[in-house]
Amino acid sequence: KVHQIPKRIFMDLFLPVGYPTSVGKSYLTYQFYDSLQGLCSYLRGVVSTSAVLTAAGVGDGDATAIGAAMTWAMRDGLGMIGGLFFSYITSCHFDSYVKEFRLFADVINDVGLTLDMLAPYIAASYGKKCILFVSAMGQLCRVACGMAAGATKGSITQHFAIRGNMADLNAKESTQETLVSLVGMILGIVLAKYLHYLESGGSDDDSSLDGRHAAAVVSWSIFIILTIVHVWANYAGVKLLRLSTLNRERAKVAFDNLFNECKKQCIETVYNSKRNCGDIDESMLEKTRGDNNKVLKTICRPDEVNESLVLSTFDLLFPTNVRLGVRLNESQHGLSNDDLLHYFQDEYGSENYIL
What we know:
Elements: H1 5-14, H2 27-56, H3 65-90, H4 98-126, H5 129-160, H6 166-199, H7 209-239, H8 248-254, H9 256-275, H10 282-297, H11 309-317, H12 337-348
Helix pairs in contact: 2-4, 2-6, 2-7, 3-5, 4-5, 4-7, 6-7, 9-10
């Protein structure tokens, strides 16, 4: 039918082939939140870029073009060097903490944009020499954002590509980002014209003090509101992800019932052993086996785990002594290979397997 042609074109252009059966659950909702946060970032970029250019000397008769260019180049260079250190420290955690680093990417981007917004005020208070440091820190935040977002993007795309259609999802995400950028460009032009109108005091004359103050108030108000919406959209989108992998915090949630039951059984076994002078009742062992079978059935699938992002982030920043995927040669604690082999033979020689 003719009236269905626009809908079909829209779906072919922006949604994966075979949608909704070709993607995982919550794909469309997640992409909505992702597009919303992208639009907020684009609009805030318009406001923050204006602040950075003002701090660099645009509009200042005493500033030179070569000076602004050198500041810009050094800012990018320092940001890249900082990005290398960030990659060295965090790259080994990207696969295990996908949701946390996806949220971190946008939060650290908010920090970078906020530093850009503060640049003119820092230049006015402490001189233009401080601009390089502030701009470099803001650029470092953006480099960290791009690195973390790019590293986690593949895992999120793989999560939604249930039919091996990662290439299709990447292509459609590009078209979605293009649409968001076009909308953001239009709104950004309108916003820039409005801020310029406020700076000029509603006329074509040079900007007045009252006009600049009004433009600054409006800029900060828009920036704060968009930042709140940006953080909320990212958090809501990340909470929708139901990944098929486990990290420490997700494993704690998945095996919580099992841990609690094991602690309960240990206490009961010790109590009954003391009461029976060291003998363990056979009926109690049968009851324990039955309870174990019931508890094993309550273990969550990885995609059913709904962990706390706050606790998971805390676990990433302040890891416990329990680590996953540790090599045997990392757990030697000063023992030689022969001593370690004898230790394992003495401790686990009678076991069928080691987990």
